[in-house]
């Protein structure tokens, strides 16, 4: 699975990071860092990554199979 991030849409709420801190991280400026940009999410992080994507209140994270 992959996750597409719409960085323009992201408002830095950090709910994705709460759910999946190994996958999503906000830097000191509140900008989102997605650890697996352009890659498949490793199997051991997929459940958390999907939870994080579902938690985003502005739908900036889209799970793509
Ligand atoms: S939950 Fe959504 S808006 Fe908040 S930091 Fe994550 S991607 Fe951005």
Automatic annotation (TrEMBL):
InterPro entries for the chain: 4Fe4S_Fe-S-bd (IPR017896), Fe-S_cluster_ET (IPR051269)
4Fe-4S ferredoxin-type domain span: 1-29
GO function terms (MF aspect): 3 iron, 4 sulfur cluster binding; metal ion binding
Keywords noted in UniProt: 3Fe-4S, Electron transport, Iron, Iron-sulfur, Metal-binding, Transport
UniProt keyword annotation of Metal-binding present: yes
Required cofactor names: [3Fe-4S] cluster
PROSITE patterns: 4FE4S_FER_2
Domain of life: Bacteria
Protein name: Ferredoxin
Source organism per UniProt: Modestobacter caceresii
């Amino acid at each position: 699975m992959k996750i597409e991030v719409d960085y323009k849409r992201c408002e830095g709420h950090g709910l994705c990071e709460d759910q999946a801190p190994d996958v999503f991280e906000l830097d000191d400026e509140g900008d989102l860092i997605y650890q697996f940009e352009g890659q498949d999410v490793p199997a051991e992080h997929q459940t958390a990554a999907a939870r994080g994507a579902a938690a985003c209140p502005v739908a900036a994270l889209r799970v793509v199979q």
